[in-house]
Amino acid sequence: MRRIILPVVLSLCCLQMANAQVNKIDDVKKSLETTNKDTIAWTHGGVFDLGANEGFLHNWAAGGELASMTFNGLFSGYLNRLHHWDIWSNNLDLNYGLAYAYSTGFLPHKTDDRIDFTSKYGIRADSSNFYFTGLFNFKSQFTKGYNYTLPHFDSISTSKFLSPAYFTTAIGMEYRRGSDVSLFLSPIAGRLTLADKYYTSMSNQGAFGVPYNKTSVFQFGAYFSGRYVININKNMIFKTRLDLYSNYLAKDTKDSSGAVIKKDNPGNISVLFDNLFSYKISKYFNITVGATFIYDNNIPYIVTPQNKDMPGNNLGWLQLNQTFNLGIEYKFN
């Protein structure tokens, strides 16, 4: 009898210790979301959504559709390395959507296309939550975008992979509270914009802020990036992000005769305001609602005979991407 009882007791003790260890690890990972700790660890997590959504776009640089029912994929993930008080954080956001659109007889066309990667390395200044931080950000898209309002839209694309491509590097201070709150401010930020000469030669203003017939432009200015994540409850999460950029080198653009064709100055601040709400219906199904606003005077909205009567023309340089997604979710941590 003892030969049977002793192994059972030992097995139960080992199982209890294993469960306690797992719970301890989960508690540590949970605490790292809201507090900064002196520890050595890797933390990672994210979500992948695949589903159907409806969308409305206005002046979206990557190309898009007025009204649509779409199939959309979304990935948002992070990977952090904590080494005592130093932290290396990485965020990757990927979006892609294909639509059955009104203007094309409900043939599939692109409605969403985004690549956004941010990497930061911070050294904690003291016992506070401030870090001396260096930042790198890359933005682009996967495939060609088109203006679907044109009769033969497929003959002229408006953008493609790496055209435009935005590379931003900055050095500054970051206030960080775990992985939920991050406020980064830099007075020293460089931004390189790349574009194919095919697009910059289509207008005497160039494209994406790149001068006519050129392939790149460099900007130097100030940069702010703020991120906030709130777990409303175990099934609801809200994420928001605000990026601001002011170009110290901004000035009016003139044609060969000296006439001003585009006004610009450091006060024309580029804005990215990104919001995502996620509600978990069941283990694998959820609802996500997203809205992204971009203001950039380097990407003007050009009124044509085909789009002159569309709603939103008075919004000028504002870009809007709104999505509603009901579908399958896979979350990892």
Gross morphology: flat
Order of helices and strands: HEEEEEEEEEHEEEEEEE
Number of strands: 16
**Main beta sheet:** 12 strands, antiparallel, barrel
DSSP summary: helix tally: 2
Derived from helix and strand composition plus strand pairing, the structural class reads mainly beta
Uncertain residue ranges: 7-12, 14-28
Rg measurement, Å: 24 Å
CATH topology term of the largest domain: Outer membrane phospholipase (ompla), Chain C
Count of individual domains:
2
Using the coordinates above, name the CATH class of the largest domain. Answer: Mainly Beta
**First-to-last CA distance:** 44 Å
Helical proportion, percent range: 10-25%
Which sequence of strands runs across the widest sheet?
Answer: 1-2-3-4-5-8-9-10-11-14-15-16
Q: How confident is the prediction overall: mean pLDDT?
A: 82
Secondary structure layout:
Elements: H1 2-31, E1 39-58, E2 67-84, E3 86-101, E4 108-124, E5 130-140, E6 145-146, E7 157-159, E8 165-177, E9 181-194, H2 197-200, E10 216-233, E11 236-247, E12 253-254, E13 260-262, E14 270-280, E15 285-295, E16 318-332
Antiparallel strand pairs: 1-2, 1-16, 2-3, 3-4, 4-5, 5-8, 6-7, 8-9, 9-10, 10-11, 11-14, 12-13, 14-15, 15-16
Describe the structure.
With 333 residues, the chain is mostly beta strands. The chain folds into two domains: 1-31; 39-332, Outer membrane phospholipase (ompla), Chain C. The protein contains two helices and 16 strands. The protein has a twelve-stranded antiparallel barrel with strand order 1-2-3-4-5-8-9-10-11-14-15-16. Strands 6-7 form a two-stranded antiparallel sheet. Strands 12-13 form a two-stranded antiparallel ribbon. The longest helix is centred in the N-terminal third of the chain and has 30 residues, at 2-31. It is flat, with a radius of gyration of 24 Å. It starts with a helix and ends with a strand. Mean pLDDT is 82; it is low at 7-12 and 14-28.
